[in-house]
Amino acid sequence: MSEHLVEFRSLGHAYPDGTVALAEISLRVTPGECVAIIGANGAGKSTLLLQLTGSLSPTAGELRVGDWSLTRANLPQIRRTVGMLFQDPDNQLFMPTVLDDVAFGPINQGLPLAEVERRARAALEQVGAWPLRDKPPYLLSGGEKKRVAIATVLSMDPDILVMDEPTSGLDPLARRQLIALVAEFRHTRIIATHDMDMVAELCARSIVLDNGRLAADAPTAEIFRDDALLARCRIEKPLAMQACPLCAPRRPIRG
Questions:
Q1: Quick one: DSSP state of residue 253?
Q2: Rounded CA gap, 163 and 73, in Å?
Q3: Rounded Cα gap, residues 7 and 12, in angstroms
Q4: Distances (CA, A) of 172 to 70, 96, 159, 169
Q5: Is this model's pTM higher than 0.85 or not?
Q6: Using an 8 Å Cβ cutoff, are 224 and 203 in contact?
Q7: pLDDT tens by residue, 184-195
Q8: Per-domain boundaries in the chain
Q9: In angstroms, rounded to a whole number, what is the distance separating the alpha carbons of residues 152 and 123?
């Protein structure tokens, strides 16, 4: 499905107070990849994602999506290509009903009503949320909100899906359902997360940020074998790779 290369060229971002959030970020994400962006709180993950939607602009370097450099003139085309799922689905759901929310984007693209209806239904069916179409979003569970928020992005027909902490706040079943859903997508997927088990399951490649700089860019399995890197960047291994405390030999209790 995806056709667009994403490329960061020596990208940097400093906030108005002078805080440097990103510095000298150079990397490529090729069409169809599923890539994790990982690192401790404050490492720059969300700032990096917001560059991709044009919500923030580089203060140094360049970002390219396909044939377009991130500029004010190219922003409409980039936003048609990149769809973002925010960490809090309440930031994306604001209409009276689920169907209204999912139809909002295509309507604002100026599409004919028949195409809007087709896209909204297809997106809700893809995430298993068509039965929720007439419900007010505030009555949905956390997992339902996440799926509907994804549908609002899918209805825009993007090539690239950018996700900020997609599994945060979900119960175990809703988390498993969401991971299975994301695994089915053929889009380019760029996922910022602290959920290392999801990373191990979905993402063949991981990019590690540390204090706004690129600390590592390698196959996920290689990242999780580098204990020194994980300790330096304050990243935990997936639970599946950690020793079971119940199975470990017990030390004798000294009296």
A1: P
A2: 24
A3: 13
A4: 38, 28, 29, 10
A5: yes
A6: no
A7: 999 999 999 999
A8: 6-238
A9: 7
